[in-house]
């Protein structure tokens, strides 16, 4: 494993506290794959026994109904692991994972992670931390989809992105298209476009391509809270 990759993996939350030697051992037994936009990484019915870590690009986790309706559950970027809930089990993966842009992914066999976890308990604590955050995110998504109208769901999404934006507290640079954003919000692209236009007319935000400028943060926060 080259030094750049070693440093990259060492900076991933899943491997925090793990010795560089153990990280090298993991990487040596891992498989590295590249995916094109729209290419399926994992299907909902797939039985997997591996941990996956996004190295570059962006993926989406989603569920599909028999009628073809799609709900995006989560966006995954560099450093994000997935497959954590099935790598130690034999159950099918509970969602599909697809590349949104050209991406590279590392696959670590579940047996390798089991052995490593016994030697490096820090991995288990990191998994618990990641799954706890995913649970909180899932609960927030359920709350938004069930209890909020589309403007509130959109406002919550934007406020969440603003909270993690260290460079500009009043701008959200979307990494996904409005069509993909609509799938996260449980809406049609047309309904999302109408909501964006109304919020722009109300002076809450403005859009330019994939950049959303927040003009009235207080009003956005009130929408997110359902007021």
Structural write-up:
It is a single chain. The protein is of the alpha+beta class and 227 residues long. It has 8 helices and 11 strands. The protein has helices at residues 3-10, 20-28, 110-119, 122-147, 150-163, 178-185, 189-201, 217-224, and strands at 31-35, 40-42, 50-56, 59-64, 70-76, 81-82, 96-99, 103-109, 171-173, 205-208, 211-214. Strands 1-8-3-6 form a 4-stranded antiparallel β-sheet. The radius of gyration is 19 Å and the shape is elongated. It starts with a helix and ends with a helix. The model has no long low-confidence stretch (mean pLDDT 87).
Summarize the structure.
The chain has 227 residues and is an alpha+beta fold. It is built from eight helices and eleven strands. The strands form three sheets. It has a four-stranded antiparallel β-sheet with strand order 1-8-3-6. Strands 2-7-4-5 form a four-stranded antiparallel β-sheet.
Structural key phrases:
227 residues, alpha+beta, Jelly Rolls, Arc Repressor Mutant, subunit A, 2 domains, four-stranded antiparallel β-sheet, 11 strands, 42% helix, 23% strand
Question: In terms of topology, how is this protein built?
Answer:
Elements: H1 3-10, H2 20-28, E1 31-35, E2 40-42, E3 50-56, E4 59-64, E5 70-76, E6 81-82, E7 96-99, E8 103-109, H3 110-119, H4 122-147, H5 150-163, E9 171-173, H6 178-185, H7 189-201, E10 205-208, E11 211-214, H8 217-224
């Amino acid at each position: 494993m080259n030094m750049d990759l070693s440093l990259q993996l060492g900076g991933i939350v899943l491997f925090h506290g793990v010795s560089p030697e153990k990280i090298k051992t993991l990487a040596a037994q891992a498989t590295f794959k590249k995916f094109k936009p729209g290419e399926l990484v994992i299907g909902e019915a797939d039985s997997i026994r591996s941990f996956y870590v996004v190295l570059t690009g962006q993926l989406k986790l989603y569920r599909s109904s028999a009628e073809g309706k799609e709900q995006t559950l989560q966006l995954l970027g560099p450093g994000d692991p997935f497959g954590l809930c099935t790598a130690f089990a034999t159950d099918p993966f509970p969602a599909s994972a697809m590349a949104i842009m050209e991406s590279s992914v590392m696959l670590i066999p579940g047996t390798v992670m089991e052995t490593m976890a016994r030697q490096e308990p820090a991995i288990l604590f990191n998994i618990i931390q990641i799954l706890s955050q995913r649970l909180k995110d899932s609960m927030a998504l359920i709350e938004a989809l069930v209890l909020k109208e589309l403007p509130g769901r959109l406002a919550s999404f934007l406020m969440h992105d603003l909270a993690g934006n260290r460079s500009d507290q009043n701008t959200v640079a979307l990494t996904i298209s409005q069509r993909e954003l609509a799938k996260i919000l449980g809406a049609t692209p047309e309904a999302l476009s109408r909501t964006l236009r109304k919020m722009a007319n109300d002076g809450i935000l403005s859009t330019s391509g994939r950049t959303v400028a927040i003009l009235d943060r207080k009003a956005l926060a009130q929408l997110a809270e359902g007021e």
